[in-house]
Amino acid sequence: MASKVIPAKTPAETALVRAFEQWRDLLPGDRDVARRREDAFHAFDSAGLPHRRVEAWHYTDLRNLMREAFPLAKAPSAAALQTLEQALANSATALRIVLVDGFFAQELSSALPGGVKVQPLASALSTGRQDILELFAQQGGADPILALNGALMQDGAIIEVAPGAVIEEPLHLVHAFTSPSDAACFTRSTLILGEGARARLAESCEYPSSAATQANACLVVSLADGAWLAHTGAIRANTANSMRFDTLTARLGAGTKFESFVFIDGQGLVRRQLLLCCEGENAEVNLSGVSLLGGQQHADTTLFLEHAAAASTSRVSFRTILDDASTGVFQGRIAVAPEAQKTDAKMLSRAILLSDAAAMNNKPELEIFADDVACGHGATCGGLNAEQLFYLRTRGLKRPEAEALLLEAFASELIDDIGNETIIAEFRRRVRAWLAGRTAASSNHSLERA
Q: pLDDT above 70 covers what percent of the chain?
């Protein structure tokens, strides 16, 4: 009889065990929540940090990449909150919901319009809101990083939009990090849209502190029948040894529409997971994103989308630009259940590699159990079009400028479909800033060689 080989715990795994033992009695929640935390940590501890033999993590071997686990961040000081308040004051954002070092910051959050309610997750856990706990259980999944989030979640925001409410201005969920020393933070937020409600949620990261961070954030989305949600995210880590894990789970009712666009840049390691299920008929899903990677950055987008009801539609399109020795990952799996006839699903990942040292790992998959569907997937990797570059050079542009023009067009094609001019302008600004940095580095390198 073959025996099971149990690998020894890594220093990071050992540190996470100690962190849970230290914090479990201090984290918010009643006895039921404490039991759920124990179950979640047991699930993580049994699996350990994911590695190459875990299919969903094959290209992001966290057991090898995560050398240490940072201590949990403490609640931010008054001085840190004041500094952050000054930084946020320069933003044009009006409807703001702020999480700082893993904690909901009421004093930095804005008053919200009628039809929207926000409650700190910590208070909901302490009062035992069963509807929230049941929603977490339904969308928990078996992923070890998501299980770790469920065990160590410090706080978050519960955002509820009333049935029929139409929120014209975007709600901004800000993830801020102010700890003066390297630290980890775990947040879990929930967005619940009632029947027929319409809203837009924009997520962003702020790093007033230069310390490294290990952030594990989860957003749980629930859309009642006929609801519409447009989501955007600006996801980034702030230092070369920082890590950010973002998980979005969503369950979609009948006749819902869910759009999500995510922009990834920065440094370090970023892993974004999307776990979605079209539970009602005639649901529509549009997922897209742009990643701009350089240096040693590693960015992983992993998607699992299940069509569980008839006549639902999905469009998935991601684009990645890679320079230097960066690594990109796109894994997408669309599953069509036997009862999901008339499903229309398309998935495409495109990447441009600007360096021989850069690497892109694409793995799109379809798993179809219905016979009346229209599904397809594809992936491309390559360099910039030589003919287009030559044409621009003949018009007097230097090579770095010509490359920047083509790359901006490649990224902006998806950005321009977001549907909100303010958010589009911000993402286009960030694309130009990234390209300007690359052009400046190329010019400096040319001067050094001269």
A: 95
SS (H, E, C) 236-280: EECCCCCEEEEEEEEEECCCCEEEEEEEEEEECEEEEEEEEEECC
Do the Cβ atoms of 250 and 278 come closer than 8 Å? Answer: no
Secondary structure E strands in 128-238: 157-161, 171-176, 183-193, 198-206, 213-223, 228-237
Phi, psi for residue 135 in degrees, rounded to 5: -65, -40
The answer to whether 309 and 225 have CB atoms below 8 angstroms apart is: no
115: left (phi over 0), alpha (psi -120 to 50) or beta: left
Distance (Å, rounded) from C-alpha 274 to C-alpha 299? 14
For residues 364 and 161, what is the distance between their CA atoms, to the nearest angstrom?
34
Q: Contact 351/320 with Cβ under 8 angstroms?
A: yes
Which of the 8 DSSP states describes residue 295? T
Q: Could you give the angle at the alpha carbon of 15 between the alpha carbons of 10 and 21, nearest 5°?
A: 130
Supply the pTM of this predicted model.
0.94
> pLDDT class for 19, splitting at 50, 70, 90?
very high
User: CA angle at residue 46 from 99 to 1, to 5 degrees?
Assistant: 165
Rounded Cα distance between 346 and 82, Å, is 46
**Is 2 a residue whose pLDDT tops 90?**
no
Residue with tokens 């992001």: 60
The H-assigned helical ranges of 55-114 are 62-65, 78-89
- Reduced to 3 states (helix: H, G, I; strand: E, B; else coil), residue 356 is coil
Count Cβ atoms within 10 A of the Cβ of residue 368 and give its class: 0-12 exposed, 13-18 middle, 19 or more buried: middle
Phi and psi (nearest 5°) for 402? -65, -40
